């Protein structure tokens, strides 16, 4: 019995790789397994190799695996490109139609199943993904009825006849392969999962759900990979809660529309990726200058320019912190787990209103799109705090005076009103202004207003601004990272510990303002520090050096080829750096 | 009920004496009072440029944003609170150069709001460069040999983009301008009002006298039917874009905010944000 295995399906884009993966993983989720998925895809709709990999485990996992147990291939290219990942004794299930062969040097068992032939016999070659998934499910020896239920849900809206045909395709695929193999493969017999149904989602869905929970009722956005799922989810859900999504003409319109709606009192967000964020920079300055709450999600992908639009990278951090001209207060947070994707939205909307600043939530492609098991999300943690937003009746202003929207207060945050409120009229402008919002070039006023705005965030720390796992008083290595890489680091650490290398681990979540005081004791305690990130220039490492120093201790571990780190890569690099 | 005086404030505009924008300011104040608004029910969102300052000169909620983006900001305000009356405003550079993309899409989106452009055919605040509205051959600091680009016709663009209300006026004609803004405010949808608002400092060609000589007032055509889109386009072309009055109105098409499924009359900003436990559980079920 094994406690985990990795399964991958590959083919041409548009061939049903996505739907097969969806049904396969839904069925596994129903059985209570923990799952972690990785999508390899290109910026095109049809054609080009694509593959989805899922790791299946009886225990929580948050990383892709180094190797592969089962590869389902629709074409020879999928075998040639992925067979190298197969561990010795791995299995390839491939369509007999293309007379599949295993590349030299790869020790794997091949099951050539007449996938297309069976599908065509049943009416349409479109069903070949069902035959293939049935075959691989069969090899695992998992209960068929759970798989059939998932098929039923996928095709239910197309009517019972279609459902039945697809279930038959699954049955035939399983039947064929089991005859060839002589029954389910013992080496792939998974231990039973706990049977408890878990949440299974991508980071973008967790964030979109977090939006709804946070009371966000409007979204303005322009489609972009890998952010679009957020708007697609919200356009389905927000109308049920009175809101809507507007697909704007560009990202500048998206962010300024969000600013207008926040000014007028509705929690409103936009989401994009690097190219969109670049366009939004001037408007983010408007939000900071006018102290208008704003929440933006940046799903980082490979840059610069169009870069690698469907690949993993963490290279927007500098742009998010420094991109706007002039100096404004802002918060930049990078969630490091799927659960944080959800909770950070709620906290992000609260902070945007409590501090009246722009808040940027920066994920990366793997966190945004990798489908994975999430811990139960807690309704009781959904708390909405709108800060100094006033409601009810306002006292009349003095003759010829306006409401002091930018009143100088001890904490720098001023009372806020929204349009429509009597006696609340004030002016809002991106020009430097006085306490009523009137343009002012007065030097003393300028200093006071700059200090007020920038001072607001001096003590701002989000929940778990850093997340530390520091079992060693003086570790050989402190590994620091951000975003989706935490789970992979954990696996590498287990191997390092087994080899006697003591490691501590910190995920930095708050990128700006930088929580240097929280990081300091960890940096002090470590003999060496490895800062691991998916970019070419070490943006996080530079932030640490800028804020904390420790230039002599810090080493970069960088990967910018578009793929996420594997546990083995981190393990090897850390050993070398130690 | 508020009078136009209540839409005044004590801020002295920084416009040059004689600037056309003073009359546009007065017309907005009068129109707002005439349609029965209270100051707090009005939000004026403006762009950047001389005319962009207008949001600070009207006693109403006002937001002076960034160059070219008054329209998306204003649309956000309207979506957040349908109970507000929303005016977006700015100059021809703001709306027809840097913000042209937003102008076309705001027109076709057709939210219930009014867009007033103060069109002086030049960049004033940056001290005299060409604008998309400048005539060919127009000499400015950035076109010392005369502009070699063709002049943009915002009214033709508006019609072809699906505008439901297109009007044009002249800042000297306060009566017509006030009436058109009132009509725009009452129109259920996006209303574009382009206003010839002369720049007395940098534009020595398109002067008050020049406009008086060249404007073609629709009052001259008693049979003109503003519901006829083809006639509207023809009239704009025949007059080389110098026609004033209500040029086109489509009363049939519903405003965007009326067509959003499930969108309530009550401003979204006033609605409850809290998600019930039951709704939350229902949302989670989809991920199981």
Automatic annotation (TrEMBL), chain A:
Pfam families in the record: PFOR_II, POR, POR_N
Xref: SUPFAM superfamilies: Pyruvate-ferredoxin oxidoreductase, PFOR, domain III, Thiamin diphosphate-binding fold (THDP-binding), TK C-terminal domain-like
Record domain Pyruvate flavodoxin/ferredoxin oxidoreductase pyrimidine binding: where: 210-450
Keyword Cell inner membrane set for record: no
InterPro entries: 2-oxoacid/accept_OxRdtase_asu (IPR022367), PFOR_II (IPR033412), Pyruvate:ferred/Flavod_OxRd (IPR050722), Pyrv/ketoisovalerate_OxRed_cat (IPR019752), Pyrv_Fd/Flavodoxin_OxRdtase_N (IPR002880), Pyrv_flavodox_OxRed_cen (IPR002869), THDP-binding (IPR029061), Transketo_C/PFOR_II (IPR009014)
Domain of life the protein comes from: Bacteria
Domain Pyruvate/ketoisovalerate oxidoreductase catalytic: 14-175
Domain Pyruvate:ferredoxin oxidoreductase core span(s) in chain numbering: 476-554
Keywords per UniProt: Oxidoreductase
Protein name, per record: 2-oxoacid:acceptor oxidoreductase subunit alpha
From TrEMBL, chain B:
Entry annotated with the keyword Protease: no
Domain (Thiamine pyrophosphate enzyme TPP-binding) ranges: 48-195
InterPro entries, sorted: 2-oxoacid:Fd_oxidoreductase, OFOB, PFO_beta_C, THDP-binding, TPP_enzyme_TPP-bd
Keyword terms of this UniProt record: Iron, Iron-sulfur, Magnesium, Metal-binding, Oxidoreductase, Thiamine pyrophosphate
Source taxon at top rank: Bacteria
Cofactors, names only: thiamine diphosphate; [4Fe-4S] cluster; Mg(2+)
Pfam family, one: PFO_beta_C
Transmembrane stretches, start-end: none
Domain Pyruvate ferredoxin oxidoreductase beta subunit C-terminal: 199-264
Record-linked Gene3D superfamilies: 3.40.50.970
Protein name, UniProt field: 2-oxoacid:ferredoxin oxidoreductase subunit beta
